[in-house]
Please model this.
Amino acid sequence: MELLQIIVLALLQGVTEFLPISSAAHLILADKLTQWPDQGLAFDIAVHLGSLAAVLAYYRQDCRRFAVSAWGFARRQRYDADLDLLCKILLATLPVALCGFLLHDLIATDWRNELVVAAATLVFGLALWWADGQQGRRTLLNWRDALLIGSAQALALLPGASRSGVTITAALLLGLSRAAAARVAFLLAIPAIGGAALLAAGKLPANASSALLADLALGAVIAAGSAYLCIGVFIRLLEYTGLRPYAYYRVALATALLLTFL
Model:
């Protein structure tokens, strides 16, 4: 891969993975506009692992508490608030894990075309716009929330929908505040991204050249750094800007995709 291609694609992945604007739409648009050769499965996994490292680092305190609580339950059957949230996150992950496993080939082929991505970008962008006006004040996730948000997350398997956008939209419609909705969406990203990368890793070839490994490492580092910064900026600006600017951007992006590929 050319250095410019590595930098651009890794930055796109890092920046768009956690913003509610659809990483798939941007990657497809970049591919069509540049005519770069396909970056390959290994690179996709590397930049997703970079994004995973970013969200783990940003929410390291939550992850540490989850680990301590899980260990405490294993040793003394002590069930606390952190373990309760962890169990809800795991419950919310089940729908997307099941759908991703069953529909993997369909998602990677028939659904991955420009018109599907443009339509999903537009429809779910409008849903995000509407949900931003319905936000509530709740900060705690209940079991019903977890199941419904998790079921909504399965819709994000449709390229262009945006995993963070769909989960934030569902959380807002259930009455969570913007900050709580974003936190839930980003915590849900940990098992979702990790599971997807693990599933894809089973299709990798056994050997890799040193040049390929260097490309993968660079892509992962760039994706991790840009994703970490993006999460921080998004969280800080959320209460000031709301989510409608991202919805407007999605409408513009969908329009650009339609004008480019129709």
In short: The radius of gyration is 18 Å. The chain is about 75% helix and 0% strand.
